[in-house]
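To close the section, here is one more complete example, presented without commentary so you can practise reading it yourself. The ligand is iron/sulfur cluster.
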Amino acid sequence: MNGSADISMSLSQNVHQDMNVTMKAGLGVFGFGLLMLFVCLTGASNANPALFFFLSFGFSVVGGLMYIVPQLKKSPAGIRNNNIFFSSAMSRGAIAWIIGILFTGFYIVLYWFPHLISNWIRLVDPLSLILRGKTADQWFLYGTFYTLAVLIMGTRMIVKYRHSRYQILRTSSVMFFQLGFAFIIPSLLELLNQPGFYFTYFWPLRPYSLWPSDFQNLLAHPGGLGIFMIFWGVIMTFIATPVLTYFFGKRWYCSWVCGCGGLAETLGDPFRQLSDKSLRAWKIERILIYSVLIFVTVTTSLLWLNSYFSGTILGNLSGNFASWYGFLIGSVFSGVIGTGFYPIMGSRVWCRFGCPMAAILGILQKYYSRFRITTNGSQCISCGNCSTYCEMGIDVRAYAQRGENIVRASCVGCGVCSAVCPRGVLNLENGPSEKRFNIQ
Ligand code: SF4
Ligand code: SF4
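Output:
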């Protein structure tokens, strides 16, 4: 709490009262950048995309940082509960619904009606020409938006949790992997006429990595890089993933490397308290996430069978499975719902209910890992901060009150429960497997 006596439940409270000059200027600059972005939709920017890129993206980024950084720096580090449940944007109010509709609308246009944003795509042509040697498409535009969101909101995260070395390190890590491995390296591969590849996405999160079509394309590519990429995908899926999860739990991937987790931890941070903590949600989570894992496993097996029998037995069946998986899971679930519903269902909708990679990592974490969150039950004052801000909907407080270790398949090891605990009750630890489950 900031201790001020001016917190009001009035619908018309003056949110600008605590703003200093920099923040007000930042809001103005951000608003101008946003306005320019929408002006660009009309095609006004096509004559000089570089200038309008600077006026729209540049001003939005600078203005956003001018507003966010001073606002967080004048408050104590860490979570502040003041006003969060009175905020329309952060507690499913009208603003949250508007943001949610805009997010989902953007994804629908991006996937199925990209011609509607063709002028935005032209806007990032100069950057695309530098990085990829060719003009932009909708996926390059998406990558630019995505990376900027992770970088700006990641900076916000670092300032907000400046008291926690763990939060600073892991946020820097997701920013690094998004910028380097999910944006710059894939672009440079295109520039050098090499196969498109993401070194930080493995099967089953990126199912194509182990599909025969990808193998054939990579093998057909001259030079050794295609073979190395196949090797990398196989090693990361079958060897590195279980080994790293054994030592560190699923956090090594979900909270330090993955781009989906990176967006959830940065852009999604203002919405993490919206995750459903009910037992019903936990039940739905288990049904959905393992169903998606079965779906992708069956699809991958059918594709290989079909490839082995040269299509003589399965006909179009495996192709149909692959198309439906791409549409239902790849586009609708992970994109439209997974990100579009941040302001309504919390920041980890996809990671919690849909991601097949999280399902595998979760099984390994629960039954074959050194990771656990230990709880010092005698120190807990039942404030509930930990449960409130657990983005995976885990009722952390219930474990803390019993002094019971938290060994849950869904925990992504973000460490926010520990960072917001005023009593230092919770510790993320890697230790011997014995006595991980210290159920009272
Ligand atoms: S239990 Fe803690 S570390 Fe695990 S997901 Fe929830 S907040 Fe993050
Ligand atoms: S573990 Fe910490 S944050 Fe959670 S209820 Fe207890 S005192 Fe509060």
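Once you have examined the tokens, check your reading against these statements. Residues 211 and 300 are 6 Å apart (CA to CA). Residues 390-392, 394, 396, 406, 411-417 surround iron/sulfur cluster (ligand 1) (CB under 6 Å).
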